[in-house]
Amino acid sequence: MILADIEKKLFTLHTKNITYQMKVDEYGFLLHTYYGAKIENEDMSKFIQYLWRGFSGHPYEMKNVEGNFNWSLDTLPQEYSTYGSGDYRSPALHVINTDGSSDCDLRYNRYEIIEGKPALKGLPATYGSSDEVQTLKIELLDKISGIGVDLYYSVFEQRDIITRNAIIKNGGKGKVWLERAMSMCVDYNIAPNFDLMTFYGRQLGEKFIERAPLRHGKTVADSFRGSSSSQRTPFMILCDNNASETQGDCYGFCLVYSGSFLSEVEQDQADQVRVTMGIQPESFRWELNSGDEFCTPEVMMSFSSEGLGQLSRNYHNIIHHNLTRGKYHLSRRPILINNWEATYFNFTEEQIYKIAEDASKLGIEMLVLDDGWFGKRDDARSGLGDWFVNTGKLPSGINKFCQKINDLGMKFGLWFEPEMISEDSDLFRAHPDWVLRTAGRQGMLGRCQFVIDMSRKDVVDYLYDSISSVLKSANIEYVKWDANRQIANAWTALLPAERQGEVMHRYVLGLYDLLERLTSSFPNILFESCSGGGNRFDAGMLYYAPQTWASDNSDAFARLFIQYGTSFMFPVSTMGAHVSACPNHQTGRISPLETRGVVAMSGTFGYELDTNLMTDEEKEIIKKQVETYKKYYDLINYGDYYRLSDPYKTDRYVAWMFLSEDKSKALVNYVQVRAYANAPAIYVKLQGLKEDSIYIVNGKEYSGRSLMKCGIYFGSENGDMIAKQIEVVEK
Predict the structure, then answer these.
(1) Whole-angstrom distance, CA of residue 329 vs CA of residue 631
(2) Residue of 34, 64, 66 whose CA lies nearest to 52
């Protein structure tokens, strides 16, 4: 719900449990007044304190106003701060004007309330009908330069989500340049003792958690890599320093963008806190001619007064219902087997068919043919860009081979890496200018490949045509979209020198354009994004591909941490997770097949191995895993997710659960990570149940209250990495 008090110039946004408020002051500045637990019918601007802070200036028009020393943009909470305004904190906007100055004096101009949610041109974003979302548009204007900023606030009342983005317009007569254009700015003038949670990592080790008390100055989590990256994630949480899974105030900020980004938290001289998030400004400079506008990516903001668990579930719900799209948006996805770890590049048509034939007998529903099926592709040094079948490996061709797989009762999918190009390829020989690299320089290789220049329309058109040709040639029902290096040498021949700062963002826009065209043209194909695993696991990619390969590390122990961290912002239905061979190819670790199955079931379930090499006993285990996943599919993928333990705090076990919407059924997953002799008993407390209901657990009756207060007993067993699944059903 959006409330606009015209007389007070007060704007109040309400969700089910959240209030966000701002107010235009007497000088026309849009000040932030409140963000937190729901407060009804109150002007929170009375909590803004106008206090003198040395070396904090005030606008010229206040020179004769009594007490002007106490009024400064450097100390007041703002909705969209600007560089050069006397506010010395991190700005949301930095403009270079036609005359070379950086002055930008944004004042309130007008507002509009929109039923529903406008789309963002060329960018992924949440969506919603007029009965589930309202949007507030507030126009700010610098009357001298003509620079305008339209701030958009979309309120998903039942989801406890507010999204923000900005559109910057050049209404002046000359050319200007954007040096920094953040999607949002949130100021906390009453700042509690905040902890900041960020998510860092590396390839094969994504989404680790770092939590630390906020310090004075700036704390940054960002990426310069041209993608969101596994090193940093475009998501962060501010929370009370005593916040836990079940209690405490928590604020989440998730950027819907797949390129270089900046997340920044600053605590100032007066202990006030500012959060900004958006496109990485260090690799960004955008030219705006008169009449042009620039749209920033969207940020999904949420607040929970009930701890980190509820904050995560808020994000899971909005991603399920208002971000992912298409046929597989909320429908069951097939259980697949991928040949990569079974064969790598070295395979024949007969080998792949035998894997599919054996897998089909186990209930597996799709065969995915990974890297090596196209061009001259026998290793990582050649073939990328040549999207036509390698008949040496697939003499039947894609169409006939796909039909053979379909005749087994299985679906068929293919791996692509469209954003890359090999030096040893027909495409490179024909178009060396399509490589993203500086003129006159060799450029940097990564995994023996270059990045193709997705900022060019002719490149995007070629990729659309060549990939479409393959997808039209056979009954292909799945695409794994990989990207196995990140961007360096971001230079394009199609832009002049002074506009090379646009390349990184234009690359992302080109990627989104290609994905939009392909997903629209092939609505029945399930797309899964991947970037050497989770190097581009972000909300922007989920708009086009409803699942992402969470990590190239498929070791069950490692996945306990990777999937735990990922769950803070992304639902299980978005996490690609497979049972792989043992010993594990990334770590050499040996884990029971049953445990690998339980861990992989907390994701979009599949297999990454050669079933022909398995014993009859192992095949029976796989059959049971497939049956179990199908039985609990809706509960796992669309039930409420609860983290029941913190793997960073104990090395003994990890536990999590899925709970149906009506709270009548739960599935508790437990992995004994490490065994200890004569160990203390472990009781895992459940969450979210009806306190007064009776539940059946292992044939015994328990009240919901007792299961949440005392928990389920898990006895200690001999051996590490022992898994259990327990069904909890309301009587």
Answers:
(1) 19
(2) 66
Map tokens 């953040």 to a residue: 182
Using N-to-C axis directions, what is the helix angle for 556-566 and 593-600, rounded to 10°? 10
Active site residue 150: no
- The size of the chain, in residues, is 731
Burial readout 422-438 (b: 16 or more C-beta within 10 A, e: otherwise) = bbbbebbeebeebbbbe
**Contact indicator for 182, 164 with CB cutoff of 8 Å:** no
Cα–Cα distance for residue pair 731/590, rounded to 1 Å: 39
Please tell me the pTM assigned to this model: 0.97
Long-range contacts: 57-62, Cβ < 8 Å, 24+?
Answer: 57/86, 58/86, 59/27, 59/86, 59/105, 61/27, 62/27
Sequence-distant (6+) residues with CB within 8 A of 651 are 673, 674
- Do 168 and 288 meet the contact criterion of CB atoms below 8 Å apart? yes
Query: How would you class 664 by CB atoms within 10 Å of its CB: exposed for 0-12, middle for 13-18, buried for 19 or more?
Result: middle
Residue 670 to residues 157, 526, 622, 658, 666, Cα–Cα distance (Å): 34, 30, 19, 12, 13
Burial 275-311 (b: 16+ CB within 10 A, else e): bbbbbbbebbbbbbeeeeebbbbbbbbbbbbbbbbbb
* 230 in Cβ contact with 599 (< 8 Å): no
Active-site residue, selected from the candidate residues 618, 634, 720, 727: 618
Q: Is 498 marked active-site?
A: no
Residue 50: Cβ within 10 Å count:
12
- The strand pairing partners of 684, in sequence order, are 712
Provide DSSP, 198-214: EEEEETTEEEEEEEEE-
Contact 241, 193 (CB under 8 A): yes
> One of 538, 608, 610, 640 is an active-site residue; which one?
538
Q: Which residues neighbour 618 within 8 Å (Cβ) at sequence distance 6 or greater?
A: 593
Strands 476-481 and 526-529: parallel
Max Cα-Cα span within the chain: 89
- Residues 6 or more apart whose CB falls under 8 angstroms from that of 437 comprise 443, 444, 450, 489, 491
Q: How far apart are CA 237 and CA 231, in angstroms?
A: 17
Report the C-alpha gap between 592 and 2 in whole angstroms: 53
**Peptide linkage before 583 cis (omega within 30 of 0):** yes
Specify the DSSP element, H or E, that contains 428. Answer: helix 426-430
Query: Per-10-residue mean pLDDT for the chain, 731 residues long?
Result: 95 98 96 96 93 89 84 94 95 97 97 97 97 98 97 98 98 97 94 91 96 96 97 97 97 98 96 97 96 98 98 98 95 97 96 98 98 96 96 96 98 98 97 96 94 98 98 98 96 96 98 98 98 96 98 98 98 97 96 98 96 96 98 97 96 97 98 94 96 97 98 91 97 94
Residue 440 CA to residue 453 CA, distance in Å, equals: 16
The answer to whether residues 290 and 175 touch, using CB atoms and an 8 Å cutoff, is yes
Chain mean position to CA 450: 25
